[in-house]
Amino acid sequence: MNTTDYKRRQMTGRGIPLPGNDIDTDRIIPARFLKEVTFQTMGEHVFEDAKKQNPEHPFNSPVYKGASVLVVGQNFGCGSSREHAPQALMRWGIAAIVGGSFGEIFFGNCVMLGIPCLVASQADLELLQREISRSPQSPVAVDVEKQEVRFGDRTIKATVPDGPRNQLVGGTWDSTAVLLEAGTAIETTARKLPYVAGF
Amino acid sequence: MARTLLDKVWEAHTVRTLPSGQTQLLIGLHLIHEVTTPQAFQMLKDGKLKVRMPERTFGTLDHIIPTTDQTRPYADPLAEEMAVHMIRNMTEFNLPLFDMSTGKQGIVHVIGPELGLSQPGMTIACGDSHTSTHGAVGAIAFGIGTTQVRDVLATQCLSMAKPKLRQVRVEGALSKGVYAKDVILAIINNLGVKGGVGYAYEYAGSVIDRMTMEERLTICNMSIEGGARFGYVNPDATTIEYLRGRQYAPAGAAFDKAAAWWKSIATESGAAFDDVARLDGAAIEPVVTWGINPGMSVGVSQRIPAPESAPEPDRPTFREALAHMGFQAGQPIKGAKIDVAFVGSCTNGRLSDLRIAAEVAKKGKVAKSVRALIVPGSQQVAKAAEAEGLHEIFHAAGFQWRKAGCSMCLGMNPDQLVGREMSASSSNRNFIGRQGSPTGRTLLMSPAMVAAAAITGAVADVREILR
Ligand code: SF4
Fold first, then answer.
1. Less Cβ crowding at N or C end of chain A, within 10 Å?
2. Residue B193: its chain A contacts at CB < 8 A?
């Protein structure tokens, strides 16, 4: 498989800060927008209700239009498994997320879409969010391979666990082809399971 | 070395270690519903891929279906389109679908165990975060996204990292009026909504041991609300008796062999855990959430906490929660007025939940200002409840008796909160906007407490009603 285009070693773009903890996937994309058989329109509805309720919401601000590095708090993307949430963020333009911790299914969904989610300390996140709001046009470099985020003259540590990091850096995050490579080992494993064999 | 159920099931389903270091994990049972799959089927078609093991995928319709008039086409054209896609995809790929005509339709996490599809020792995946429910039978069950649904369809496998394991022990005796829902809400309050990130939870201890399968399903269901993608209970005599005679469970001599294998995969005594948490069951009282995530809860006799009582980084969320809910710190939760009462969902939409709610419903009439819905978790639950006359008890008390589906748990069908309505709900999420109205408000509690709130018109202590 040609994985060159898929490699997610590092990406640079403008940042968008989104403070607050426990922002769930119902917040990111309310369920009523899930009544779609494609993901195409998801980007238009990202944070729809949150944006309406809060005119100051960063996703409302023209300053952050075109940003691609989202900086969040703790437990971002908790709740529902809906892939519509990372799809909505991705289609809005987000290519990487830096936060304190992530809902696990959301994290996995992001990997499947080639969106790295990096974990940084609370202090560094606050610093990064402050810097971005002070200077929204400045680039933020997200280095998945080196596990760091660079902005201005600062570098902060931002980690991704080995498995997903290898997938992102190696370009194997779009996993179907990789899983198919196992060939008949899939059936062999299945046949050994008592419930598949019929006890 | 003594091994855990997680160790044994993970190992048995490992196809290989991937170059990334992740496990290529075989999925024994794949459950699907209409909301998180149309895109996966499209990806399959775009990639000209087949379904690898069609006999291991089962589907249902649950999220978008109306619970009143179910004649097709549905009044909502978007819901109708999703149903059309689901039926077409299942037919095209030759996969079984439990639609209304089968008498077995229902919420995916209710019908899996009910039909005996979900069995001990399996890996179970579904494009739905509450797949952890099926862990109650002793399976490693977890939610996945739509692209992963594509992977399971195409390869019957997923690329996964093995989680750490925390044993959550609940010991002692629960007092009257305290149910499985209260136990899991207490666990989440204790360990936090992100306490389980990176972990599977093994629920154990005398309280869990004594629980029925339906109670264990309620416990495992909400693992994800504590951040844990997986939650399970070791298979025991309760598990085996629950599965005996179910449609997809092994029958005859195979059942005895299966039962022996099921027992053999339980965690061995002396096995090591990455962490152990303990809760005193006797200290748990009926729990009610007051905020905007399932960890923001208090006992019904307690007061809503002040933001200052929370760690610094959580205080903004506390303030946002108080503002959204319209509550004051220090206010007792008991007496908070409600507009809607909802009993149902994959957490609490099973027969035993409806029986408890009916018992409370017998004690009064739904308050004039309250709209109260009882939504069975499946057609089979509805049928069993009607056979016992529960629907008549509900009708007599002024509750609406609906058809099976997810309903007001997430409001993707017409069952939604309106404006800032306050709902007493037996579901699992109190996130802002969760029940269909962007400004709607949700108080999570047990079905008994929902019924008590419905007849009181406000949050009430069910122990006083049942006394
Ligand atoms: S009942 Fe609610 S939580 Fe359960 S599957 Fe349906 S929508 Fe999801």
1. N
2. 22, 75, 78
